[in-house]
Design a protein that fits this description.
- The chain is α/β, with parallel strands linked by helices and about 210 residues long.
- The chain has a single domain, classed as Rossmann fold (3-Layer(aba) Sandwich), CATH 3.40.50.
- The protein has six helices and nine strands, in the order ββααβαβαββαβαββ.
- Helix 5 links the parallel strand 6 and strand 7.
- The structure holds S-adenosylmethionine (SAM).
- S-adenosylmethionine (SAM) binds next to helix 1.
Length: about 210
């Protein structure tokens, strides 16, 4: 990326505070990252379909869902770009007595080579990076699951500062996994004024074909 500062000065590459790691570390250090400890309801409601095995939690933040998976018999790879968030997540996991079931990995998922056909379950909450979607599909083993929920385009009526590139377009989550078995799917939100201020998310539970 090249940005022009004035006629003589150009910045090549990302300046530090534009870097997602710096930005997310600073947010978590200020106590502004997501801090909830309870797992997402979408995960709680649908996990019964998945037999415990190896799970990947992408952009896991402070580990609310990883810890819950570990409590329910999964081994978990919990990946996030922020070391500050993962330090907190590890502390929480120790307190919950499940630290030995979770491997915390500080990594930028946009530069991380995910293994192929490895996971029984991949979960993702409040993170949507379109360039990552094909690799996530491939990382699930045949018969394995994706349970996912994140903000969709209608969220911009509530939060005009969010970057639309990271919001799910209408039908986008279903289109991503359209050749899998879709057990549950929903899109909450619209541009109707009555929905402004409410959470606008797309959610899916899908299983990869076994063959
Ligand atoms: C809104 S938070 C969601 C955290 C967690 N899934 C939850 O729901 O509590 C988004 C997370 O994405 C992480 N993140 C952002 N860009 C990332 C990247 N390129 N690679 C890995 N993690 C990233 C941030 O550090 C942050 O923890």
């Amino acid at each position: 990326m090249t940005r022009k500062v004035d006629d003589k000065v150009h910045i090549i590459g990302r300046p530090p505070d534009d870097d997602p790691r710096t930005r997310w570390d600073a947010r978590y250090a200020r106590g502004e990252g997501p801090r909830k400890e309870s797992p997402h309801a979408w995960l709680v409601h649908h996990l019964w379909r998945v037999r415990p095995g190896l799970a990947l939690d992408i952009a896991c933040g402070m580990g609310r869902d990883s810890i819950w998976l570990a409590r329910h018999g999964f081994r978990v790879h919990a990946v996030d770009i922020s070391g500050v968030a993962l330090r907190q997540a590890r502390r929480r996991a120790r307190r919950a007595g499940v630290a030995d079931r979770i491997a915390f990995v500080v990594a930028d998922l946009t530069r991380f080579a995910l293994p192929k056909a490895r996971y029984d379950l991949i979960i993702g909450f409040s993170y949507w990076e379109p360039s990552l979607l094909p690799a996530l599909r491939e990382a699930v083993r045949p018969g394995g699951f994706i349970i996912y929920e994140t903000f969709n385009v209608w969220w911009r009526y509530t939060r005009s500062d969010v970057n639309e590139a990271y919001l799910v377009p209408p039908g986008g989550m279903r289109a991503w996994l359209q050749d899998w078995h879709i057990w549950a799917y929903r899109e909450i939100g619209s541009d109707h004024p009555s929905t402004v201020g409410r959470k606008a998310v797309s959610s899916i539970v899908a299983q990869k074909p076994r063959q």
